What does this fold into?
Amino acid sequence: MNETSERIPVDDLPEDVKMNQKLQNLLDQTELQLEEWKERRHIFIETRAFLKCKERLKKNGFVNIIGIHGDGKSSIAKELVLQSGRTPIIVEGPGQWGDIVQSSLEVIALVDDIFGKFPLDNDRKAQWLLKLSSMYSDADEKKIQIITTCDEHVFMSCDTYLSGFELFGRANNVHLSGSRSDFSLQRDERLQMMGKHISVANPSVCIYSEAGRPCPSACELRVSEESLERIADVDMCLGFPLCFKEFLTDPKYLASGELFFKHPIHMIEKMDPLNYCTLGCVLILKGLTKECLEKIDRPNKVSDRVTCIAKVCGIDSVSSRDIQNAAIRMSTTYLTYRNGYYRFSHDSIKEAVFLFFCSRTELVLEHCDFALIGSLSVQKANMVSCVEG
It folds into this structure.
């Protein structure tokens, strides 16, 4: 992998950029987000999908990466940005486009989840749809490269409108999954990912053979070659790299083999109720802060909610220390810790946890806000059909 996109030192920035504080803020925010990706990119695999996106970006100046949550859209997009050799800017909303166009920088712009994370985000859709025509002409005139990502279900909900925009012409779109895709993750790519995860990120995991080569008894984390081969064939709802990363963290998960990947979140529910309770707390409390954790051990609304969640998970009582320790254990896989609070590392995890808790109607109606219920309920049918399949 070639890392060629770097933030230009402030002293070397063109005068028009130095005078534009909004643009400088965008550059700062982009740098922070890409630093997080750089910490993880050592296990990135250049898949067929990545190479096709790279080809279309080079040829057309645009690429739209479309797929379900967990397909790796953002990872592919950020890697493309780093390899572009241009000044990267991650765009959060259509109102920031004008600041980019006015600069003299050679820019590559990334708009992640351009039309929102869920089909109900109609305001965000409308705002970007108004901007698309000018974006295409601006980018062509200023030689700006554009990468967008979009959820497959969101894309389908506005496909009729998008067909009239050159930016979303078929030649610019790469579908990572679904009926339109020729670039879903292949078996050999999964095996390559697993090998890299184990050799680079988790060298303490021992690989043995069921046919004869035993694993040292002192090795706590172990998985067989045959199990890895079977895992490579499992159809999944959640992102494969994310699930495999969690799979390697616990002997119980490793022992379950390919079963873990058929229903990864449900396996955590059965094998580790405390971890599942913690995921439920992150869902219903909309993240875990230090202040929130401190309230768990005292009578209040937060402790009442946590007690209710714990009972749903089959736990009689739970302390703030229990929840915090579980959150720390999952902070490199299903959760992430940033800016003082724990949250889901990916929307696919939030959806899968919601799918479990939404069957507990009283809990959801009493403790979840209606925006969360509405947004995630739109995804429920897709998740149910995938899980049942």
